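Notes continue from the previous slide.

Worked example: a multi-chain complex. Inputs as given:
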Amino acid sequence: MTTLADAGLFTYVLGLADDALVSAQRMGWWISRAPQLEEDVALANIGLDQLGQARTLLAYAGQVEGAGRSEDDLAYLRDEREFRNVWLVERAQTDFGVAMARLLVFSAWQRELYAALASSSDATLAGVAGKAVKEVAYHLDHASHWVVRLGDGTEESHARMQAALDAEWPYVAELFEPVDAALVAEGVAVDPVALKPAVLTVVEEVVAEATLTVPQVAPAVGGGRRGLHTEEMGYLLAEMQHLARSHPGAAW
Amino acid sequence: MREWPLWEVFVRSRRGLSHVHVGSLHAPDAEMALRNARDLYTRRQEGVSLWVVPAAEIVASTPDQGAAFFDPADDKVYRHPTFYDVPEGVEHL
Amino acid sequence: MYGNDFGARAETSSDEPRSFLDLLAGDDRVEPRDEMPDAYRRTLVRQIAQHAHSEIIGMQPEGNWISRAPSLRRKAILMAKVQDEAGHGLYLYAAAETLGVDRADLLDQLHNGRQKYSSIFNYPTLTWADVGAIGWLVDGAAIVNQVPLCRCSYGPYARAMVRVCKEESFHQRQGFEILHTLSHGTPAQRAMAQDAVDRYWWPSLMMFGPPDDDSPNSAQSMAWGIKRFSNDDLRQRFVDMTVPQAEALGLTLPDPEIRWNEERGHYDFGEVDFTELFEVIQGNGPCNAQRMSHRVRAHEDGAWVREAASAYAQKQAEKQLARTEGAA
């Protein structure tokens, strides 16, 4: 039987899992399309880390729910409204500047989150976070290096990197939306609000070193944590889920 | 600049061993070269430490020098322990 | 192709330095700074570049299924595999660069069509089972071609191939596993697997190149220790290896002439229709234009990024210089 507390934990874990899964799905697009062959390899590594995090978290979410759903059931058979990822990660990212701006913000946030979650009272979450924090630290390092090089590179790259940052910035606020207060109080979940200063400090230092400016833009409405997504999410899921859903019950 | 410079990559596969040349890659600067080397040459836990060196900075002997450089060592067998006779039964030597 | 050089004019050499001939005679390795005939160098550059290009273009047909892989485990495996192909391309470009060419030039020659890549990648991946068929058949054929290259006379190429072959071993297995799962799955999955094998079997046999009596470069390449076995020998080895595996999969190969020949100790098989191969090499395969435009677009879209990184590096170097001078 799923208790109310379990339902809260299920939703919380799904949020973390879906952020990672949808990021990995977008990152996969880059393999064979990166600006340099070395970068194809680097982005594939990052995507694989994210996918690995997603799989562990989805498996755990299924366990918490207690209805026998596997990682694949949750990834492939949920409808759009049941996905709990933020808008930041779900939109297409076919410009390298956008990809790096997003990875900078996302990995800076994930690093603070996982660092705090490593001491969660939930042993499984603490374990996942302890491993993932090292991975996302590398993602942050990679994104930072690129944002600095693009921001402080050529005139063209400076303009494009600033435009990319401007495009991503409205979606930053949603990362800090409060989660289930009871879970935070029990020491299970991390309060995203508390992560905000540290995350912004990290990002702003990189932005300054890149000779860019922190965008002054209004936050997007958001709603991913409640299952309300952008139009792009439907296409992402259609592509990701189509084959698995075309063969109900099949093993792969 | 047409192409990023070439870097030679050396990997220490585990503690106690030297860094060994594994190949090369292209990167715009040393920091990126190190990161690219990590992603390219240690994806399967092949290393615990990396060196990257600009290929242009490597000074190498030429095959012409080969004879003069390396042949003189040929006849100095006394540098190798197997040169010496040890009486039967003597251990730890 | 894929480590098998054909379609270009044969290189021969009359002027071969003594030191080079001694190395070959002693089955020793030729290293970058050794004296070597120009024709040997050119042949190696062309073959290694073609091999590297094949790895890079080969990312596309399988990359086509990363976003649609039917389970997260399969998605992870496929991402790691396509990533390996980028890595293999890089190892090979690095080997080619020891011969005094620049990767940027080799890529230009790929992009303007002057250098080729393996024709197998001009076939489309229409279903998920094609990912399995590529792993099992295409990587299987590549391995048969590549294992002898680990003993190639040119040191850097041989070393790159050792690394590639080591990593390649999981590629073929994952392909076999995909097909095994499908052939033991639902009727629709089974049909998908058979269809993929039907489409990829003959193109895989073509990967070994034209028959020996129509392979202008083979004799010289064998004399130089670049090539160790003839095209037909390698093709036979692949067929002998694959037929029992097909039986284990419960799938049929689309060649009614396949049967064990007790006398030869090998499987007989039907004649490969090389007119199709030459059509595909000429650029008339199903995906030639698509593969090239994907690759060229990635390269062009990335130009601003590569330039920015170079500009940044230069600025940093200038700043460093100014600091050093200031301190002096």
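Summary box: The radius of gyration of chain C is 22 Å. The beta strands of chain C are 259-261, 266-268.
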